[in-house]
Amino acid sequence: MLLLIPFTLWTFLLCLLKAAYSDYSVDQCNWKGSGLSQEPGSVEQIFLHCAEGDVEWLYPVGALRLSLSPRLPPGPVAPASRGSSGGRITACIKPAENFRGAQIYLERNGELQLLVRDQHQQLEEEDQDAVEAKVHCFSRLAGEKVALFIQSTLHRDISRRIAAFKYELRGDWSSGLLLPQQIERACRPCNDTEVLMAVCTSDFVVRGHIRNVVHDAERQESVVSVSTTKIYRQKFTLFHPIGKYGKSFGEVRTFLKCGVKQGVGSFIFTGHVHFGEAWLGCAPRNKDFKRIYEVAKEAHENPCEIESD
């Protein structure tokens, strides 16, 4: 017996099949799809609702319009907190080293601004052996309509074309090191209130010593090697134990312009994780932190409790 299915149902099923084929995402943070299922010139709408994740577009054809609407935690913001600017959100994207076959634009108020070029074209134009995957950042006000428009580029052969990148979005209370225009603010010393807030809200808080400082002029970064004597908190495993003496070691980055030098003594290192790397926030000397914390504790003004010794 031949089973007849109404045309509208066929259309619905085909749409489901197309969505299943082009979108392998199983959560609201990451998306993976293939341009082989897209019509040339079509634009596929994607909505992600996490503060960080991955996007991978195989064999790009047509375009993607990516709306990022993270559900950011409210996060405490002190009146004098560094980076506070009335609900502004910082967004950064880091293309994969083999980013090929598309270009990424920032869509804001109906206008497109180029953020990431097709690295294949960039290689041809600049005659380089490799193009470094750089981080591109922008900011928006909470509630402002901003999206990423990923446009495929024309190639005779789309094989081995993969447009992949990572993204991060954070409220300003935790994004003090993400935008180039924040360098001056990131380099200046923290005041007492900022120190307390950094200890309470940072991705990592450790006590330790500076073993070495290496300056990378090409990336405009300074890499600080840290030997820890106590780990108060780390969101990810940034500091790894080595040897049998209970110490952990790791690296913290900051801007080259800050002029970080190897200092003697014990410090409290705080900061945030940016694409898997630890970036330095406030770093007071341990004796100064203890004084700041004890004064705030006696006045019942410390924003959180932290073990002191």
TrEMBL record:
It comes from Scyliorhinus torazame (Cloudy catshark). Residues 1-22 form the signal peptide. GO terms for cellular component: extracellular space. Coiled coil: none annotated. It comes from the Eukaryota. Belongs to the meteorin family. GO terms for biological process: glial cell differentiation; positive regulation of axonogenesis. Its main location: secreted. It is found in: Secreted. This is Meteorin-like protein. The keyword Signal applies. Keywords: Disulfide bond, Secreted, Signal.
